[in-house]
Each structure stands twice: as C-alpha cells, then as structure tokens.
Design brief:
Elements lengths: L9 H24 L24 H6 L1
Length: 64
C-alpha cells in the first residue's frame, strides 16, 4: 500500500480528515450555542506557523 503524507496510509489520512471535520463541527456547534460568551476561535494554528514541517496553508483551513 502506498504511503502518503509523513508515511501514513491514505486510509489513515482519510480517517483523520473525517475526525478533524467532526471536531470542527463540534466547535462550530459550541460557538453557536454559547455565542454570547465566545469572543473568538482558533483552529489549526499549530499547523500554520512557517517553521513547522507540516504547514497547512491558511486558505485550506478556511475552506474546511
């Protein structure tokens, strides 16, 4: 089986994508539920710094 990003199988990467989307959806739901007390949210910031070896472009994060 060919390996993708950082030696992970495509199956593992796809599972991670699904799990990430579930977590993002939970965050959105919480933000909407508690809109009166939530000022801001940050998602993926650890992957957006230029010194990381697995940087994710901000545009991609915004598309999610």
């Amino acid at each position: 089986m060919p390996l993708g990003w950082r030696g992970h199988s495509e199956e593992t990467l796809q599972k991670n994508r699904v799990n990430n989307q579930i977590e993002i959806n939970k965050l959105i739901e919480l933000a909407n539920t508690y809109a009166s007390i939530i000022f801001s949210l940050s998602v993926g910031n650890e992957a957006c710094v230029e010194w990381t070896d697995h940087m994710v472009p901000v545009a991609r994060l915004l598309r999610m």
